[in-house]
Amino acid sequence: MKKIPILFISLLISSFFYFSSCTKNSEADRSQETLEQLTNLLEDPSISPQSRYAVINRIANLFYTENRTDDMVLFLTDWVETHPGDIYDAYWLFMVASNYLKSGQEPLAEYYYERIINNFSDLLVNGESIHFACLQHLIQISKDSANRIIYFNRIIHNFPQNVSITEMYLRLALEYENVGEWEMALKSYALFLEQPDSSTIQISGIPEAYTKARQMVDFSKSPKDWTFESLEALETAVKKAISSYNWRALDRYRSKVNFFAMSWKSSESDPNALENFSMHNFMLGNRIRYNESLDDTSTPTEAYLRTWGWSQYINVWYLYFRKVNFPADPEIHGRWEWAGIYFGEKL
After folding, report:
1. Parallel/antiparallel/unpaired status of strands 128-129 and 123-125
2. Residue of 347, 340, 338 whose CA lies nearest to 239
């Protein structure tokens, strides 16, 4: 990976153009004179690669500072086309891409960033990789999940030291979900969970990341034999079991993965929210009742059944039903499960 000697370049440019700043011509004339001097120097066959880099960079910056960005883009792209062996071609195109990004022309910026990572060797500028910078920009501006999958994978494999691998695996899993590659999504979720900070990491825009990943992976490995074809079937079965005090049936109906029992203020990610108790302990000797209808806050994907009589300490329990969201298995996706219990009256 080639490094660009920034300090050397700055000294070279400063000394080369010191006397040109003393001219009494107008600003425009001085700029044009500078460009002519630079162009002549660039055509010198004896110029060293480092000096040539400094001259090209100076020309591009002159165009940019004078708001002649079209001239800058034309100059740099033409140089790359006519000098395919220039070791700094990736940097010239990076300047072009960054100009388009700054001006809001994201599709053009995306084109050039992709061209750099696909066709040119990497460079270090001020100690930072141009390929890594391109991938960061591409992840931010690309709207295509298939492309974003490529970018995330490249970062994970080529620049693991520059990023949070934990976050990368989680974001990669979500992109695989978007394109329906469920096997790869589950593999990425599993890799996310293997990271030591997966349970504590805070990822912008993805609340409860650990809970989501854990549910997906655990659910994929389970028999899923507690799910019901419809909400009506689940509601009927649970009510019948409560009426007959059939605690064994209730234990069968509960989700065997990520089932929670908690107050309304708690979160499913709270370790204390995951319970594995038997309903027998709460049905014995108690008079359990339930509302005839589901709670009016129920939605097409979530439902609540108010019940009471379970305990003298917390009398009211809301049984929480939800539609299974697991497209990886079309036979299970869209069925219903009894996923948890909320203790106490709704807040």
Report:
1. antiparallel
2. 338
- The pLDDT assigned to 10 comes to 44
pTM listed for this prediction: 0.78
Quote the CA–CA distance of 171 and 204 in Å, as a whole number. 11
* Residues of the chain predicted below pLDDT 50: 6-24
Q: Pull the structure tokens for residue 296.
A: 């009016």
d(CA 135, CA 168): 12
Q: What is the pLDDT of residue 67?
A: 87
Q: Which of 14, 53, 49, 51 is nearest to 34 (CA)?
A: 14
Three-state DSSP string of the chain: CEECCHHHHHHHHHHHCCHHHHCCCCHHHHHHHHHHHHHHHHCCCCCCHHHHHHHHHHHHHHHHHCCCHHHHHHHHHHHHHHCCCCCCHHHHHHHHHHHHHHCCCHHHHHHHHHHHHHHCCCEEECCEEHHHHHHHHHHHHCCCHHHHHHHHHHHHHHCHHHCCHHHHHHHHHHHHHHCCCHHHHHHHHHHHHHCCCCCCCCECCECCHHHHHHHHHHHHHCCCCCCECCHHHHHHHHHHHHHCCCHHHHHHHECCCCCEEEECCCCCCCHHHECCCCCHHHHCCCCCEECCCCCCCCCCCEEEEEEECCCCCCCEEEEEEEECCCCCCCCCCCCEEEEEEEECCCC
pLDDT at residue 62, rounded to an integer: 87
Q: What is the pLDDT of residue 28?
A: 59
- Indicate the pairing of strand 336-343 with strand 260-263: parallel
What whole-number distance in Å separates Cα of residue 133 and Cα of residue 126?
12
Q: What is the pLDDT of residue 267?
A: 75
Amino acid at 98: S
The CB-based long-range contact list for 139-144 (8 Å cut-off, 24+ gap) reads 141/101, 141/106, 141/109, 141/110, 142/110
